[in-house]
Amino acid sequence: MTQRIALVTGGMGGIGTAICQKLTEAGYRVIAAYHPEYDQPDQWQEEQIAAGFKDFLCVPCDIGDWDSCVEMAAQAEQRAGAPVDILVNNAGITRDKMFAKMEKEQWDQVISINLNSMFYVTKQFIDKMAERSWGRIINIASLNGVKGQAGQTNYSAAKAGDIGFTKALAQEYATKGITVNAVAPGYVATPMVMAIKPEVLEKIVGMIPMKRLAKPEEIGALCVYLASDLAGYMTGATLNINGGLHFQ
Known about the structure:
15% strand, globular, seven-stranded parallel β-sheet, Rossmann fold
C-alpha cells in the first residue's frame, strides 16, 4: 500500500505539533498547514528535525479564506505527490469576552476560523477521498463546544457547530469509505495553557477529576486511531478527552 498522506491545519501549534508527530510515528506522510502570518515556520521545522521528525511538508493557509484554502490544497497535493487521505481540522482561535461586551469583530473572527473553515478546508479534499473510496476527516472540537463556557459564546457556538458539521457529514459519506469524527479535548498542557498564571492554572487543574491537564500527545494518539483502518466502523462520533471534567 502506498504511504497515506495526512494534512493537519494549525499543524505548528501545541496540539497540532503533537498530532503531526504521532501521525508520522504511525507511518503517515504529514503536511503541516500554518497561517501565512506565522513568523516562525522555519524555526518550527528545525525544531522538528532536531526531535527526529525530518520529513514534514509545510504549506501556508488562511483557513478563514476560501481562495487561500484552494491554493493550499493544490500546493499540498503537488508537494506530496499524491492526494490527501487524512484531514485533521485542528486550527482554531479564541477571542474571549463576556457576551455583553463582545464586539462583532470578535464574533466574526472566531466563527470564520473555527466553523467556516470546516467547509472551506474539507471541501478541497473530500471529493477525491470519495473517488478513492477511502478517507478520514478528524475535526478538533472542544469541551466547551459540548458543555458551553461563560465568556466564550463565540467559541462555544463555533465548536458546537463543528460537532454538528461532523455528524451531518458523517451521514452523507458513510457509504463512500469516509469516516468523519470529532475530538473534544478539555484543558491540554500546550505552551499557551502553561503560560496561564500559576494560581489560575491551579484552580483549573483542581476542577479536573484526574487532577492534571491532558498531554498533547494523548490528543495526537487519539487522532492516530481515528485515522487508522481499525477505526473504519466509527463515524459521526464525538470523543471526549477531558480527564472526567464533563460527561456528555
